[in-house]
Write a structure and sequence with these properties.
The complex is a heterodimer of chains A (253) and B (125). Chain A is built from 13 helices and two strands, in the order ααααααββααααααα. With 253 residues, chain A is mainly α. Chain A folds into two domains: 148 residues, no CATH class; 65 residues, no CATH class. In chain A, helix 5 packs antiparallel against helix 6. By secondary structure, chain B is mostly helical. Chain B has one domain. In chain B, helix 5 runs antiparallel to helix 6. Chain B is globular and about 45 Å long. Chain B starts with 10 loop residues before the first helix and ends with a helix. The chains are: A mainly alpha (253), B mainly alpha (125).
Chain lengths: 253, 125
């Protein structure tokens, strides 16, 4: 697909379906992901919930894009050099986290000022549509430079990993899942809904759909083939989505 | 098949039967009549599916203690689905024919499951 606006992000249907069902805006959901991608975590060997999953999503994307190569392409890259210097000085020598973060922020700032931005737009903004901007953090931009990829590619990969049908099908068939992006999405969603309790109230139609879904999953018990099971659930979710957003049907076809 | 079962009926179940003037035996009988994969896969009537849904959620629950041979399950479910599709293709709208063929497969499945369990038991010795 050719894009008229290179700063426009293409949102996959299954991501829209998931956001719509849980009443979180696309903007909120994608922006949350951006905000959790930090250079500090990229240099930090220990696990930090959500930050690690966000980073892992980027790594998996890079691995898919350039299989077998290191995530960081250009070993002599000045950014990486300077970041590794910070890592040695600050993180490995036991400086505390606050100092480390401050140091990194200083370098990221310098970097953003000094590079023209080969991989991210000068405005540090992407758009989900004409009116819906995403703010790219300095950290996110610095990572795009570091890993030599465009922000939209990472975001589109992240969104492509989100599928309620996939999640349900795995649960139904007891197939172990290893989808850090989905884990990130569901956990941040859960936190978001905790703060917006009003969104948890379901109207009659929403309540009916959830019940239909439960029943449908019981009905699918006899479909043991994962791809088939997933495809049927996907269609079920999408039909519901199109019934609420009939205009979207024109785009999809 | 006729069988005697001893049940410990809950107070509420008895109360509900009592107030609606239903014989508990009839209630349980009509439930048992509708626990059926062939019925589930051939009927369009949602109400006729509920008993089997109950059964499925039971065997899917984390508290479920039994063991299901998943490869047999997969094999016979897929056979059943194919047979039902074929039956409906040949005799459109004829649920009787479709359910009859599905029941044959269910029977084979039950036999295979028993044979499998027998093999498992004798292998132990």
């Amino acid at each position: 697909m050719t894009k008229e606006n290179p700063n426009l992000v293409t949102v996959p249907l299954e991501f829209k379906v998931a956001c719509s069902l849980y009443k979180i805006s696309l903007q909120e959901a994608v922006q949350t992901f951006i905000n959790y991608c930090t250079i500090y975590q990229a240099l930090n060997p220990s696990y930090i919930r959500l930050y690690s999953e966000a980073l892992e999503t980027i790594f998996r994307y890079l691995d898919q894009k350039r299989p077998g190569t290191n995530a960081v392409v250009d070993q002599g890259h000045e950014i990486q050099g300077c970041l590794l210097a910070i890592l040695e000085d600050v993180v490995e020598n036991g400086a505390n986290e606050r100092v480390a973060k401050k140091e990194i922020a200083k370098h990221v700032n310098k970097l953003i000022k000094s590079t023209p931005g080969n991989y991210y737009p000068k405005s540090r903004k992407l758009y989900l549509d004409e009116e819906t901007p995403l703010e790219l953090t300095k950290d996110f931009c610095a990572m795009c430079e570091l890993y030599e990829c465009h922000p939209a590619e990472i975001l589109e990969y992240y969104m492509s990993m989100i599928s309620l049908a996939d999640l349900d099908a795995r649960r139904d068939l007891r197939i172990k899942e290893d989808n850090c992006s989905m884990y990130f999405f569901m956990t941040t969603l859960y936190n978001y809904l905790k703060q917006h309790q009003e969104l948890l109230k379901m109207n009659v139609e929403e309540d009916a759909f959830m019940q239909e879904l439960e029943e449908y999953r019981l009905h699918l018990y006899h479909i043991k083939n994962f791809a088939h099971h997933r495809a049927l659930l996907k269609k079920f979710y999408q039909d519901h989505y199109f019934s609420i957003h009939p205009n979207e049907l024109n785009y999809a076809n | 098949m006729q069988t005697n079962v001893t049940l410990n009926l809950s107070k509420e179940f008895v109360e509900m039967c009592h107030y609606s003037q239903q014989n508990p035996e009839d209630v349980l009988q009509s439930f048992a009549d509708e626990v059926s994969y062939p019925l589930l896969l051939t009927t369009k009537d949602r109400n006729k599916k509920l008993a089997t849904y109950f059964f499925i959620q039971l065997i899917q629950s984390p508290d479920f203690k039994g063991q299901i041979n998943e490869s047999l399950e997969e094999h016979y479910f897929s056979q059943m689905a194919t047979a039902i599709d074929e039956s409906y293709a040949q005799y459109p709208g004829d649920q009787e024919k479709a359910i009859a063929i599905a029941r044959q497969i269910m029977e084979q499945w039950a036999k295979a499951a028993i044979a499998e369990r027998g093999r498992y038991l004798t292998d132990e010795f």
